[in-house]
Design a protein that fits this description.
Blueprint: E1 7-10, E2 13-16, E3 19-20, H1 21-24, H2 30-39, H3 45-57, H4 66-76, H5 81-90, H6 99-110, H7 115-124, H8 142-154, H9 159-169, H10 180-191, H11 202-205, H12 207-217
Antiparallel strand pairs: 1-2, 2-3
Helix pairs in contact: 3-8, 3-10, 4-5, 4-12, 5-12, 6-10, 7-9, 8-10, 9-10
């Protein structure tokens, strides 16, 4: 039998993390509801605002990403929208959309090391540091800059954000450039230590996978 700790039905009432769904409707924002479903508790006002910042930062990526191209290509073959969206979601991987998980792992394994040591270790192994560098932004990623500024304002700029910026400034990193992805990951670590909560971004990061193909029909 299927089991879940997230929701249940008791008679005619639907319960989400112990709250009656009808009481949540109209009283919670979408961001607050996602946080509740994932963490089992309501966010503080600062946590909600930080997540809103992250959601907006990941809402659209233009037509260049593999997920958008995959969705459009499949739909152009005569398939329905849901099939195209499925193809777009399947295009997410370690090189596209999956960097957040890699960064969270990097944080867990290296938080006690200096930025210089981390950079040297990655370079000596010929490995690319996840979340750093962007093909369009050469000097700085304005999205990352904005996310980190809100992290400072809302009290989520901690050791993880500092480590990211130290790594970016490390002379061996050749101006590695903090991207939006790593800014989100480090700010998220200020909200929760649980890496699996990276899943909070999947509904939003797939929004453009759904919306862009819709424009194909318009």
């Amino acid at each position: 039998m299927w089991r879940t700790a997230i929701s249940t039905h008791i008679g005619t009432k639907a319960l989400v993390r112990g709250y009656e769904l009808e009481e949540l409707i109209g009283n919670l924002t979408f961001t607050e509801a996602i946080y509740l479903v994932l963490k089992g508790e309501l966010p503080t006002e600062k946590e909600r605002k930080m997540l809103d910042v992250m959601f907006v930062a990941t809402i659209e990526h233009s037509i260049a990403p593999p997920s958008i191209i995959a969705a459009r290509a499949v739909i152009s073959g005569g398939n329905s929208l849901n099939v195209g969206v499925g193809a777009g979601i399947l295009a997410f991987g370690s090189a596209h959309g999956g960097a957040l998980e890699d960064i969270m792992k990097l944080l867990q394994e290296n938080i006690d090391k200096t930025a210089d040591k981390i950079v040297k270790e990655y370079l000596s192994q010929g490995k690319r540091i996840p979340g750093f560098g962007h093909r369009f932004f050469k000097d700085f990623d304005p999205r990352a800059k904005k996310i980190l500024s809100f992290a400072k304002e809302l009290g989520f700029y901690g050791k993880y954000c500092k480590l990211a910026e130290d790594m970016d400034r490390d002379p061996l990193s050749y101006n590695a450039l903090i991207t939006r992805t790593i800014a989100i990951a480090y700010a998220l670590k200020g909200i929760t230590e649980e890496a699996e909560h990276v899943g909070v971004f999947l509904p939003n990061s797939t929004s453009s996978v759904k919306i862009d193909p819709i424009s194909y029909f318009s």
